[in-house]
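FAQ
Q: What does a multi-component entry look like?
A: The components come first, one per line:
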Amino acid sequence: MAIETLIRHADATPKRERRKEARPGELLEAALDLFVEKGFSAARVDEVAARAGVSKGTLFLYFQSKEDLFKAVVRENIANQFPTWQEEFKAFEGSSADMLRYALMSWWERIGKTRASGITKLVMSEAQNFPEIATFYQEEVIQPGNALIRRILARGVDSGEFRNLDLEQAVHIIVAPMIFLMMWKHSMGACAASAHIVNPEQFIHMQVDLLLHGMVATPLT
Amino acid sequence: MAIETLIRHADATPKRERRKEARPGELLEAALDLFVEKGFSAARVDEVAARAGVSKGTLFLYFQSKEDLFKAVVRENIANQFPTWQEEFKAFEGSSADMLRYALMSWWERIGKTRASGITKLVMSEAQNFPEIATFYQEEVIQPGNALIRRILARGVDSGEFRNLDLEQAVHIIVAPMIFLMMWKHSMGACAASAHIVNPEQFIHMQVDLLLHGMVATPLT
Amino acid sequence: MAIETLIRHADATPKRERRKEARPGELLEAALDLFVEKGFSAARVDEVAARAGVSKGTLFLYFQSKEDLFKAVVRENIANQFPTWQEEFKAFEGSSADMLRYALMSWWERIGKTRASGITKLVMSEAQNFPEIATFYQEEVIQPGNALIRRILARGVDSGEFRNLDLEQAVHIIVAPMIFLMMWKHSMGACAASAHIVNPEQFIHMQVDLLLHGMVATPLT
Amino acid sequence: MAIETLIRHADATPKRERRKEARPGELLEAALDLFVEKGFSAARVDEVAARAGVSKGTLFLYFQSKEDLFKAVVRENIANQFPTWQEEFKAFEGSSADMLRYALMSWWERIGKTRASGITKLVMSEAQNFPEIATFYQEEVIQPGNALIRRILARGVDSGEFRNLDLEQAVHIIVAPMIFLMMWKHSMGACAASAHIVNPEQFIHMQVDLLLHGMVATPLT
DNA sequence: TATGAATGAGTCTTCATTCAT
DNA sequence: TATGAATGAAGACTCATTCAT
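Then the predicted structure of the entire assembly, as C-alpha cells:
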C-alpha cells in the first residue's frame, strides 16, 4: 500500500502506463494476503503471482527471491497509525479508565479487526526465521505502541486514579491480551473446532473491567 | 574412509543397536528440539531420526507419520502434565487467590519455561495449514487447560472470595497472557531488540495482582 | 565430462528446449512403452520423463499424477479409436457376419497388434491393486467396446441373419477371445516355449467361422 | 500343498515337532494367497510371514528373497489334475459334443472356480518378469491341458460328428474363453463396478452352444 | 532355529528458481 | 519487460533385506 501511494504521487500517468509501475505494489498486496493466510513456507509464489495477475517469472523480476518478497511485504505494511492516536489521546478529556477502555476498543476496531492484525501474526510466526524483521517490527511497531499505553497509565497514576504501578510491566499486561487476540484470530480462531470461543469485544470489555477493579469480592483496604 | 574406519574401531560403536525401549523417548526428544527450532512443516523427519541416532526408517517404525510423531511430542510434553495438576489442585488448601497464583507460576515452571512452550508457538503459527493438528491441540491441551483454570475460578466464586464472574470469559483472560508469554518467548523474545523486555516471573506476579485487585486506587464499592 | 562437453558442442543440443506442443505426445509415447514393458506400478515416472527427454518435473507439468498419465495413455491409444469405429460401422453395408469379421480383424490391426494391447494386459494384471484404474478402464474402454459389438449382433438378429441371441452374453463370448489374445501376447506369448503357438490372424478367422457356423457337421434343424 | 503332503507322508511326528518342518509349507500357502490377491510386487513379505504365523526374519531363513519365494509358490502349485481327467475321458461314452460340454464345465468346477485359477492369473500377470516360470507353466500345464481338449475334438472329427477342423487352432479357441474367465475373475471381476457382468456357468453354456451350432440362422449348406 | 529392530535405497510428488523466447 | 516451460533438489513415506540377540 505504501508503495502504491508513493507511485501514485510520483506521476499521474494514464492507466496503461501506470499498470506497469504498479506491478510491485500489486504483488505485495497479493503476497500479504497469502503470507497472512498460509504463512511463509506454505504460501506459493505461483499463487501470489496469479493473484497479482502476472506470471511467476515476472515476480522474480521484481523480487530476487521468496524471502526477499516476504521482507518487502512486511516492511511495506508496518504502517504507523500511531501519530493519529497520539493526537486523539492528547485531546482526551475523560477519566484514565475510560481512556484505557477507549484505547483498547479503538485498537481492536482499527487494527485487531482488520487485515493489519495479520501482519502481527505473520511477524510473530516467522520471527525465528527472520530475526531482522522481528527487530524491525519491535522498533517500529511494538515500542511506539507500548509508549502510547504507557502514557495512558502514567496519566492515571499521576492523577491518583490508578495505584502506583510499575509502568513497564503494566504496559505488557495491557498489551499481551491484544496480541493474544490477533494471534488467536489468525490461528485457532480460524479453525472450525474453536471458531467462536473467544469473542473479542466481550473479551476486551471484561479484560478492562478486571484490570481496573480486580476479581476479589473484598477489595484491597 | 580410512579415518572413518579408525574412528569406528576406536569407539567400537555398533552400526545397528537394538534398543526398543529407549527409541521412542530418544526420538521424542529429538523431535521436540526440531519442532520447536523449525516449526512443524520445516522440521525434517530425516533430521529428527539423525539427531536421535537412528535411520529414517526406524522413526517410522515407532510413529506412523510426521503428524503422529508431533502428537506424541505434545502428549509427552504437555498433555501428560494435566493429571498431575488436577491431583495437586484437588489437594490444594489455601485461598483461591493463592491457588490461581500457584497455578500460573507452576505452569510457567513446567511448560512456559521449558522447550514445551515452543509447541504452543508452533501450533498457533501453523494451525491454519494443519487443521488436524489445531483440532488435536484444542482438544488435548487447550480444553483440559481451560478446565483446570475454570475449576479454580469456580472455587473462588463459590466460596465468595471472587466476584460473580462469567467463568468462560474469565478463563480466557487468565489464559491469554500465558499464551502471550509463550508466543513472545519464541518469537520477538528471541530477537536482540526486545530480548529482556518481558520478565516472565514478574509479569505473572503482576498479572495475578492486577487480576485480583485491579488497578484503580478507589476500589469498587 | 570432457567427453560429454564435446558431444554437447557437437550436437549443440540446448539443455532447455521449449516445445509445449510436442511434450504431451512425447511423454505419452514414452509412457506407453514403459507401462507396457513393466506394468503400471513397476513403471517409474522418472524413466518415462527421461525417455521423453525431459526432467521429472516437466512430466508433472502436463499430467497431474502417474495415474493421470496412465489414463491419458489409455485415452490416446484405445478410447480415441471408438468414435472412428462407430462411424465405420454406421456406414457398413455388407452382411452382419462380414461386419463381425471386419470388426475383429480391424480391432486386431489397430489395437491387438500394436503396443496398445499391452495396456489391456496391464489393467487385468493390476486391476485389483488399482481399483480406480479398473473402474476407469471398465467405463472408458470395456463398455464402449462392448457396445460396438452389441450393435453388430443386434443388427444381425434384427435382420434375421443371426439366431435370437442373448446379446449381453454373446458380446462377452465375442470379446473374450480378443482379450485372451492380448493377454497371451504379453504374457505366455513372450516366452520361448509358446512363442508362436497362437497365430492371431488365423485364430480370429477360425473364431469367427466357428462362432458363425459352429463345429457340428449336422447343423441345427 | 504338495510340500505339506510330502511332509505329512514322510513322518507322522507329533504336532509340536512337525510344526517346525511345516513352516515352508505354511509360508507357501500364505504366499500363494497374497500373490494371487495382490500380484508379485504389491504382496508384502511382512504380510506373508504374518499370515503364516512367523516373523519376517524367518521367511528369509527359508527363502533367499521374495523372488525366490514367488518361484517356489508357483512351482509348488502347478499340480497335475490331468491324469485323472484323462481317465475320465477315456471312459466317456456320450457324444463328443457332450464330452466337450462336460470337459469345460468340470474344468470350471475343479479349476476355474477354485483358488487354482489364481495361479493362472498369477503366472500370466507376472510372465514378463519371470520368463522361466512362464515356460515352466506352458510345459507343465498348458500343453497337457491342450492335449486333453485336442483328444476330444479329434474324437468328434473322427466320428464325423464335427466338421473337419484344424485341431491346433480349434484347441486354442476352446481354451481361450476358459483362460479369459480365470483372468476376469481375478481382475475386473473383483472390482465393484463390474463384479457380476460375466456369469461363468451361463458363459460356458452359451460358449459351447455357439461353438457347436454357430450363430447364423441359416446353417452352412 | 527364530526373532523383530534397524536399515537405506527407492518412489511419487512439490515448488522456488532459471532461462529461452 | 514479460512469459511460462523446464528444471532439480528436496521431502515424506515404504519395504525387502540384514543382523544382533
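Q: Is there any commentary attached?
A: Sometimes. For this entry: Chain B touches chain A through 63 residues (CB under 8 Å).
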